[in-house]
Predict the structure of (2Fe-2S)-binding protein.
Amino acid sequence: MAPEPSPTSSAITLHINGEKHHLSVDHRTTLLDALRERLDLTGTKKGCDQGQCGACTVLVDRRRVVSCLTLAVTAQDREVTTVEGLADGDDLHPVQQAFLDLDGYQCGYCTPGQICSAIALIEEHAAGWPSAVTPDATPAPLTPEEIRERLSGNLCRCGAYVSIVQAVAHAAGTHGRNPALTTEEGAA
């Protein structure tokens, strides 16, 4: 049980990767800091700490969010999935496997955020959500241009964009594959 909160903190329950975590957090604590500093889930990276690089992207209720700008208290009783929660035992999520197979990383620092964002963008596209480059707001093929637009909030300082786009396209099934993009509850 979490300690009794002070007037500037709250006792919250975070559902992360299928597990409940009870914490007392200062109201100003970001989800990123709660994950990394309080729960030792260090797969999510702190990049710019201003919501501009996407390194801290996680999934909250299967939607991507930059965790450095999300207060931990707002994630109360919502399903949070970090890169640590994507694999099913030793079986990688199809997006993780595509990044590995197609070298969608270099130094790897941005990779957890890129992967979480890629999973969400594939689901958004499958649901028919348009992007800024989708013509006439109609479902468009998941072309490299479309993938780049949908991943534009995730920066890679190494410049692995060509391989990242190829990995996302592969995972999305645009190369003749149609992998299951969701796994059991708790993974996106």
The radius of gyration is 17 Å.
